[in-house]
Design goal:
It is built from 10 helices and 10 strands. With 276 residues, it is an alpha/beta fold. Helix 7 links the parallel strand 7 and strand 8. The chain is globular, with a radius of gyration of 19 Å.
């Protein structure tokens, strides 16, 4: 896989002291108040690495995901992609980044147009980015569906999202991302709406993407057992700040932050023996 911007030793994605603010306006529009969504956040995702961003709802995890793909402006700090500031990329470079980093939503219904068949949904990204034509486009669609386990192809290509199970819809959403051959996946609560069997299958897909394609993944989740099974490193967020980080096993077995300890204690029943 060709690197976005060849730069030996650089993380693919890096936040350096990033803060994001939202502006709240009173009902009469007379008062505007700035609210910090995330404050002074620093994190990194290296090539071929799976990183988990942990925390409760409202901790700022999704804001980080949106900021990483350029959907959310920052108030201060710097977002780097392969060592280069995201806000200094040329128009063509930014377009390339938007192809090479793909965001997978918690609810696949947010990503899938209910009026599009599976084949059309997966083809849409290729059409937008003007990638692959004719037989090559069909080959890439078939390869993406095969990788996520939606076979035989004829069973799925002509179906609409409402005819699929939740797990199948999430796999279609992942296939729609993979067909663009990204270098980085950002998955926002990708298994929280799935049952245990489908959850295990989707997590295995992320493992295979790393082992077979060398793909980097940032998993945004409050599901600690999934993060423990999957991630090389974790960042724990509380009220918009990173309160703990490190290798997954070290954080789960010897956390130092009180909030992290509370999260792990609450999830201890779903963690492997000896991990908490």
């Amino acid at each position: 896989m060709t690197a976005l911007f060849p730069s030996v030793g650089q993380p693919l994605l890096e936040f350096k002291g990033v803060s994001v603010e939202f502006v709240s306006t009173s009902l009469l529009g007379r008062r505007r108040e700035r609210l910090a969504a995330i404050e002074d956040v620093s994190l990194a995702v290296g090539p071929g690495e799976i990183v988990a961003l942990l925390g409760a709802s409202g901790s700022g995890k999704t804001t980080i995901a949106r900021t990483a793909v350029g959907l959310q402006p920052i108030a201060s700090g710097e977002v780097l992609v392969a060592g280069r500031p995201l806000d200094r990329l040329t128009r063509s470079e930014r377009r390339d980044w938007r192809r090479r980093v793909q965001l997978i939503f918690q609810d696949p219904s947010e990503a899938l147009n209910p009026r599009m068949k599976v084949e059309e949904a997966i083809e849409e990204g290729l059409a937008i980015h003007r990638l692959a034509m004719g037989p090559e486009r069909r080959r890439r669609i078939a390869e993406a569906l095969g990788f996520v386990g939606l076979t035989p192809l004829d069973t799925f290509l002509g179906r609409y999202p409402h005819t699929l199970s939740g797990g199948q819809r999430q796999r279609v959403a992942i296939a729609a991302a993979l067909v663009l051959e990204p270098e980085l996946l950002i998955a926002d609560e990708p298994v929280s709406m799935l049952d245990s069997s489908n959850r295990a299958g989707v997590l295995e897909l992320f493992r295979r993407l790393r082992s077979e394609r060398g793909m980097s993944t940032l998993i945004v989740t409050h599901d600690l057992p999934s993060a423990y099974q999957l991630a090389d490193r974790v960042y724990v967020m509380n009220r918009g700040r990173v309160v703990e980080q490190g290798k997954t096993a070290a954080v789960f077995r010897a956390s130092r932050d009180a909030y992290t300890k509370t999260l792990i204690a609450a999830a201890s029943g779903g963690l492997p023996a000896g991990s908490a």
